Amino acid sequence: MMSKNSVGAGLKFGCSPAYVINSIIALAIMIGFQYVVPAADPLTPLGVEILGIFLGTLYGWLVVGDVVWPSVACLIFLGLSEYTTVTGAFASGFGNNTVLLMLFFFLFTNIINSAGIIEYVAQWIATRKFAYGKPWVLSFLLMIAAIVSFFMVSATAACLVMIPLIKSIALLYGFKPGDKWPMLMMGGLVYVGSTSYLILPYKSLPLIVFASYESTTGQSIAYGPYMFVIFVSTVVALALFLLACKFIFKPDVSKIANCNINFEKNMELNAHQKFVFAYFIVVLALLIIPNVLPASLGLVKILKSIGNTGILAIAVVFYVACQFQDGLTTMNQVFAKNISWNIIFLLAAAMAISGAFTAETTGISPWMSAVVTPIVASKSPFVFIVLVCIICCILTNLANNQAVCAIFTPIILSIGMAFGANLPTLVACMMAACNVGMITPPASATGALLHGDKEWVPGKSAYTYGLIYSLFNLFNAIFIIYPLGCLLM
């Protein structure tokens, strides 16, 4: 018998009419594109079908604003085509080594986060005695803390640690929400930190791009030169930010300059935190060693046989098996922490669709080359890189940066191969241009944190500074990463 309270109660949906309509459009593109667009040699009918699935997925990611269901739909429709089976599509997506590597990297960073290592490092850097009364030394140390935080964990996790730290330091010095100095520091945190985020090739955005690069070209990018190039670009980003703050933005920092209060706290790592910190360094070294030491060494051979995914999987399982009283003791606890499942689903679909893009049976790669080559044939490699960076910068500020990279990496690589561009440098510049999305809230999760904090970043400040930092980032990609990449990569 129905209860009295249930009478008249119906199903309630949280999705808006626009969401429903755009979802229907996305599915219609996936299904119907092949029936309305004829195949033009060298594009095959299967290629047209794959393009429709890709465009529908793209519409879902960018316009609908969802990641999970368009990614799942992409895999299902790929499996229903002659390209593969549904099982094969899901296996090529979620079974892709890059997807598994990202998953275990998330799990490993959850261990680092749960131990409070990032909070300790950030506070230690930002509370050195030699920074007292020196506003730009303090600003420099805050940006170093941001670089270390973004380097060690995900960008969102780093922001969630660093933004409260900046606010607390600002309040200690007597600043109020909306004051220019803390606002600049919060924006600089995202800009400079996002640049350093790319240094490790095992983070989500590099993984998306590198996996597509390997799938499209059949080659891998040398991590050593890549990491050095991005490290240099991070140093330049830090210098640009500090110089702009001091000589262009010119915030009032007299409260810092005239203050002589000792803010330093007695911070000390406990035994568990010391172990986790050392553990992170060891695991990071194991990930990097195969790419920097001679391949003939026995240790390098063993590590390459295990692979990066295997190394991270062992690291996570070993830590849980140790049953530390102060740490995470079960895999359920490790999985219960921050895992960006949206990124996992997006990457799985991106890996599956990028494989279809390069398959000979679709004819997509030669077709794209035939269409685009005449357009860019008269352009110099430098002009081509500039156009790629500008387009990616615009797009990444209209949609999620990871989605933009997932979408455009195979396209740009196909064009770049026909154009004879330096492909590792091309994807590094593209990734850098996509990485700093700050002008609008949908551009990135870190950018959204700034736009959503109207108390500390009021009015249109987030848009203004987001535009300025994005221009700084474009300069970095075009005039630092490009020439240095052409020389070393």
Describe it.
By secondary structure, the protein is mainly alpha-helical. Helix content is 73%, strand content 0%. The chain is built from 22 helices and no strands. The chain has helices at residues 17-36, 45-64, 68-80, 86-94, 97-114, 117-126, 135-152, 155-172, 180-197, 204-217, 223-249, 254-257, 271-292, 298-322, 331-336, 341-357, 364-376, 381-396, 401-419, 423-435, 445-452, 461-488. Helix 10 (204-217) runs antiparallel to helix 20, helix 11 runs antiparallel to helix 22 (461-488) and helix 19 packs antiparallel against helix 20. The termini are far apart.
User: How many angstroms separate the termini?
Assistant: 72 Å
Q: Measured on Cα atoms, how large is the radius of gyration? A: 24 Å
Could you report the average pLDDT, rounded to the nearest whole number? 83
- Report the structural category: mainly alpha
Sequence stretches where pLDDT stays below 50 over 5 or more residues: none
Overall shape: it is globular
Give helix % range.
over 70%
Count of extended strands: 0
Number of DSSP helical runs: 22
**What would you call the quaternary organization?**
single chain
Q: What portion of the residues fall into strands of 2 or more residues?
A: under 5%
User: What letter string, H or E per element, gives the SSE order?
Assistant: HHHHHHHHHHHHHHHHHHHHHH
Largest sheet: none
